[in-house]
Amino acid sequence: MANDSLKIAVQTSINLLKDQIERRKEDVARAANQKKQQAWLLSLCDDAIHHSGLNMVDSDRLDNCVGELYCEGSKQLNQSITRWQEEIEKAEGEIRKLEWMTPA
Description:
Residues 74-101 form a coiled coil. With 104 residues, the protein is an all-alpha fold. It is 91% helix and 0% strand. The chain has one domain (2-101). It is built from 2 helices and no strands. The chain is rod-shaped, with a radius of gyration of 23 Å.
């Protein structure tokens, strides 16, 4: 009886970890898509700035601001992706450990 309860508890833990892994994989995919969208928007902004008719100083200043915003957003997305990938690896390791410890 205790053996059955342990198996159920372990399987429940494994299922929760698998759900967490799937959510994090979805988060990583969304962040990767956001990075593509940011790059596309940066390109649009660059084109708009260079065709705006602003003088060179203002154009460069605006271009630098847009570039800084892009870099900061990209940095934050990269940090999130790295953290989520680490969470995935940790959860996968926990699953392997639980499966190894599960009584037959």
